[in-house]
Amino acid sequence: MRQIDLKKLDKLESEKKQSSFEEVASSKGYSPRKSNTSDLPSINVSHILTGKSKSGSPISIKVDLKKNKNKKKYEDWFWIEFRNSRGKPGWLHGDADFVIFDRSEDFIVANRKELLQWLNGSKKIRYDLPFVNLAKRAKYRIYKREDKLEEITQISIKDLKCLKSFQLWKKPNAAAN
Predict the structure, then answer these.
(1) Which pLDDT tens digit goes with each residue over 95-135?
(2) What pLDDT, on a 0 to 100 scale, did the predictor assign at position 41?
(3) How far apart are CA 161 and CA 150, in angstroms?
(4) For the ranges 34-38, 153-157, 166-170, which has the lowest average pLDDT?
(5) By the 8 A CB rule, do 136 and 71 touch?
(6) CA 42, 138, 163, 121 torsion-angle sign
(7) What is the pLDDT of residue 177?
(8) Dihedral sign, CA of 90, 91, 95, 98?
(9) Does residue 118 come out as left (phi exceeding 0), alpha (psi in the -120 to 50 range) or beta?
(10) How remote is the C-alpha of 119 from its chain's centroid?
(11) How far apart are CA 46 and CA 98, in angstroms?
(12) Are 64 and 71 in contact (CB under 8 A)?
């Protein structure tokens, strides 16, 4: 009996999602490409989108594609990373212009700086309360795992919808997924 290599399967699924994103970005008029070492020192940038501004001048947009690691029923909640597992500034403080959250039928697009400003000013995230150590309690609370340095929280899609930069990019054949 042949064994299934789970790492290869995850990689194939990840590549499929990225190609889906690239397909949608192309349909929006962008030329997407994966970020690479020549783009360094860009931190937390997965793709570069090139296109034209409304005035016709060329633009280059750095994006960070966030895969949905939650089950389908939790697609309305997104993880936000203030600090990563090494204690360094998380993707929220990276170099991306936009953060793109991957869901089963669409991509949620939000300006990273606008999201950061909203998080700092909304008073929804409870910085004043002790950290929680269970992921299920991380909604608007800072979650930390034992022996890790990350600081993450979950916010609702409703919060992203109030951002001026909020966009919903439908995936092709979304009904078939």
Answers:
(1) 999 999 999 899 999 999 999 999 999 999 999 999 999 99
(2) 64
(3) 26
(4) 34-38
(5) no
(6) negative
(7) 47
(8) negative
(9) alpha
(10) 15
(11) 11
(12) no
Virtual CA dihedral for 108, 111, 114, 116, nearest 10 degrees?
80
Q: Which two tokens stand for residue 88?
A: 């360094």
pLDDT tens sequence across 16-71:
545 789 999 999 999 999 988 665 566 899 999 999 888 989 999 999 999 877 66
CB 157, CB 78: distance < 8 Å:
yes
* 96 contacts: CB under 8 Å, gap ≥ 6: 42, 44, 45, 46, 62, 63, 64, 112
Q: What is the pLDDT of residue 175?
A: 53
- The DSSP annotation for 93-162 comes to GSS-SEEEEE-SSEEEEEEHHHHHHHHHHSS-S-TTSPPBSSGGG-BTS-B--TT---EEEEEEHHHHHT
Q: Nearest Cα to 97, choosing from 39, 139, 156?
A: 39
The pTM of the full predicted model, rounded to 2 decimals, is: 0.82
Amino acid at 28: K
Burial class (CB in 10 A: 0-12, 13-18, 19+), 45: buried
